[in-house]
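I hope you will forgive my troubling you with a question about protein structure. I set the record out below, with my sincere thanks for your time.
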Amino acid sequence: MKQRFSLIVTLMVLMLVCLPAGVAGASEENDADIQKYFVLHDGSKGEPYTLFYPVELTGPGEIGVYAKVWDLDPDPKNRNYEPLRIILVDSRAFKEMKPSQWKQWVIKANKFNAVEWVAGDEIRSFVKGMSHLFGKKDKPPKYFHGQIACGREGKGESIKHAVDAPELKITGGRYVVILRNVADLKATGSLLIRYPGELSELDPEVEKNFEAKPDLVVEKLSVNTRGQVAVQVANRGKGALRPIKWQLTGPEAVTLTLEAGGRNYGVTLSALDPKMELRKPGAAVTYLFENLILKEPTRVTAVIDAADKAVEENERNNRLSRELTPGQARYKREPKEEAANGLPDLKVSSVRLDGKRRVIIEVTNQGQAGLDTALWSAGGKGPELELKMEGRGWSRVQLGMLDPRKNLSRPGGVAVYDTGYVLKQTVTIDATIDTAGVVEEADEGNNSFTATVKPQ
């Protein structure tokens, strides 16, 4: 019976990934990673649906293959059923493959959209005899370096194989990860191949599903005594910003843009943060636009990642606008100086449950000025509290309902809002105050708060 094959070949760019949980951070700086979202269509033991992922090592080291299945359709009756096989071999497994054919595997690709052949002559010419590819269980061939069975939803599996210098010389650094589906169902999941190399790839579909994401925020705008504008950018998310983002150029790059006096300026992430500080959650960097010199009061707007090239916890806090006056502000202001500029500063300070398991949201004005009381009668034009549950829109609360006692009209005031929602299961809640930027604040980058809330 004729087998069906799909070949996925990719160009790869340097990055760091986190699949499955606990794998992130384990990579060496010189390792490369391929992070892919995969779909294995229905197959059978005699006619498996098969994908190939070729990788090319540049030196000795360990190959790690990590797979996680997110969905099986239809759901098997046996929850322990594992119809997928993931195999690691080197290129000696394909006896008919010539070096030029290998190069075609690696070169003929689109960075994020896979090139695919289904049962094509180009594949069959060097994978004939596939049923005998893996040898006997008690005596696997030398090119065979591991196999796992997987399929249980949410359960991660892995293969690890150390490649020394003699083996690297024999294989030429050419290895292939093979995915096979032997069941009459469709499997979707994600695959991480970590190996000693120079090039990596991050599939955007996988990036969206990371449990911990970064959050790039423009936190400060200031001007030094020469009139040069400085911008502070921070990663306020729970996740790391992937190193691959520093390698992107042109339209694909993560960019900091600045608009002042009708002119636009911009720098890529590699220029903004050459030491890659923003990889770490909580880190902040400051970039000085030396060629921009203000000579009079000017409205300045800075935006980080306007093209949404990085998947973030919050996409709404990437912009900050300020009126900057040369000679009145200093470069690298301290936080206490930023708060002392006579502006309010709204912050979602808590998302919690009360004794009856109702969701309570707490908003604090930690600035040096109170909100204008006229905002309470502004209706839909005033600041609102936006709530999301599990990433989906939940509620928008106007200021009058959020804070009927007008506590936020004074510095240090706290508004406690009872949503009335009784929580029955663990959820992630996003709360953001003043999403439309109605209020000019001392710090525009701290209006959002994310919490995972669990009923006791």
